[in-house]
Amino acid sequence: MGVLDDLKKEAEQKEQGNQTDGDDAEAQEAFYQAKLQPVMRRAHDYFADLVKALEKVERKVSASYALDPEQKDVVSLPQGKYVFRTDDFDNPRKLIVATECQLDKRREYLVRGRGAVTRYAALLDDHQLPYYTKDELDHSHQVVNATFTLEGPLKVQIRLLASPENRCIYIDLLNVESLPTKRYKVPPEKLTDDLLDRLARMLMREESVLIEVKVSEDARQQLREKLEAERRRQAVEQAKVDAAIEAERRAEEEAKLLNRAKKSVTGIAGGLKKKFRKD
Question: What is the pTM of this model?
């Protein structure tokens, strides 16, 4: 087979691929118009009306987040400034309901240990909460401790994405459930008025989860044991870090005392030499 035959075959395969892509695109658009567009339009009208009502009512809403690095303190933040956005009024493929939680006061947390600093920074990044740090470095210029100052605001968002290629609607939650981010894949027929109402209640902090999952007592016990094991592991790691820091501090103090002693001995010896010379 010659070069020309190879090129003709490649061109034919490419043409067939383009035809298949075109057929897939047409099928996806047909599915969107038939199944997704009506549901997204209904969700569009629901959330647009919800935001307008919230602006008029000005209901006081607060949300609680475990922002303490040691998980001892739950921070309650006032929520407000609701916004609704869409990419297209007639054929919406993306709907966003957003709000934000303001920090009631400046919050600072001292986090000790390299691992703890990394984990806490990752937590704040997952929450997409603005912050800045003042780092404490060791002799190798590695972060050992850090003071985190939380700035805020903490963004809250419910986003609906129509996906004709996957024949579903994705519901993306930011700082709405216990986890900072969560994605649900919902068939269009499951995005009912009841589900929209539950999303609204979650936004208003009247519900905590979108879809409740029943967990057996055995599974709960296993989870508790895993959490306890992780807590002990972190405690051991923190103890090692604290011990290393304390050992380094003591070594520095001993070095200073030894240096002072040497200077003192040198001074005494020098004084004795001067005395013997005079004598």
Answer: 0.69
In terms of DSSP bridges, do strands 181-186 and 154-163 run parallel, antiparallel, or are they unpaired?
Answer: unpaired
Pair of tokens at residue 43 = 């969700």
Which residue type, as a one-letter code, is found at position 85? R
Map residue 278 onto helix, strand or coil.
helix
CB 189 within 8 A of CB 169: no
Which residue bears the tokens 């006061």? Answer: 105
Backbone angles phi, psi at 144, to 5 degrees: -110, -35
Q: Are 154 and 77 in contact (CB under 8 A)?
A: yes
Phi, psi (rounded to 5 degrees) for 150: -85, 130
Cβ atoms of residues 155 and 128 within 8 Å: yes
Q: Per residue in 125-161, pLDDT tens?
A: 999 999 999 999 988 888 999 999 999 899 999 999 9
Token readout for 68 is 């303490």
Contacts (Cβ under 8 Å, ≥6 apart) of 196: 42, 43, 46, 47
Q: Are 102 and 152 in contact (CB under 8 A)?
A: yes
Cα 250 to Cα 164: distance, rounded to the nearest angstrom:
65
Token pair belonging to 172: 């993306």
Tokens of 231: 């807590």
